[in-house]
Amino acid sequence: MTGLLSWLYQVLFNAHARQRAKTLRKRFALDDSVRLNYPENIFLHGNIHIGINTYINGARITSGPDSKVIIGQWCAIGHNVNILAWSHDPAKATGNEKERPAVQKDILIGDHVWIGTNVLIREGVSLGSGCIVGANSVVTKSFPPNSVLGGCPARLIRTLDKS
């Protein structure tokens, strides 16, 4: 009986995951080449564009009404990644949501960017094409193409030679 219940759970879980991926694709106009590897762990909200052949293992990607997130093509986004184009304003961080100001700035991520597991990318950040963001990093500022960065806050570790 346990085997049957396990099988049934897996069938229902997979059906739910396929439906969730289908809903995300439709709602955010994602190309069929965008891989949503664990759709149950992906939350998208706002004005988001994701380029072709990018994959997401698990992420929360949000923008506000006055901001957007643009992710290039052939990007690799690890597990538990947060890309947040809006946040609380430190001047009044709590209170009624309708009265509380928010900080909103676009996030731009170039092509062929690899974002490791447990990364937080803050509002206003631009990552040039070819960047690599190390696991567990907090990215609070922009980096030029081919940068390898990591840490909390993230800093430049080295620049890749793409010649």
Low-confidence sequence ranges: none
Strand order of the largest sheet: 1-4-7-12-15-17-18
Q: Structural class given helices, strands, pairing?
A: alpha/beta
Report, as a whole number of angstroms, the end-to-end distance.
60 Å
User: Based on the structure given, which CATH architecture is correct?
Assistant: 3 Solenoid
Please render the helix and strand layout as text.
Blueprint (H helix, E strand, L loop, with lengths): L1 H27 L6 E2 L5 E4 L2 E3 L4 E2 L2 E4 L6 E3 L4 E2 L3 E4 L1 E3 L13 E3 L2 E3 L4 E2 L4 E2 L4 E2 L4 E2 L4 E2 L7 E5 L2 E6 L4
Parallel strand pairs: 1-4, 2-5, 3-6, 4-7, 5-8, 6-11, 7-12, 8-13, 11-14, 12-15, 13-16, 15-17
Antiparallel strand pairs: 9-10, 17-18
Task: Explain this structure.
- The strands form 4 sheets. Strands 1-4-7-12-15-17-18 form a 7-stranded mixed sheet, with no helix packed on it. Strands 2-5-8-13-16 form a 5-stranded parallel sheet, with no helix packed on it.
- A hairpin with a 2-residue loop joins strand 17 and strand 18 (154-159).
- The chain has a single domain, classed as 3 Solenoid (UDP N-Acetylglucosamine Acyltransferase, domain 1).
- The chain is an alpha/beta fold and 163 residues long.
- The protein contains 1 helix and 18 strands.
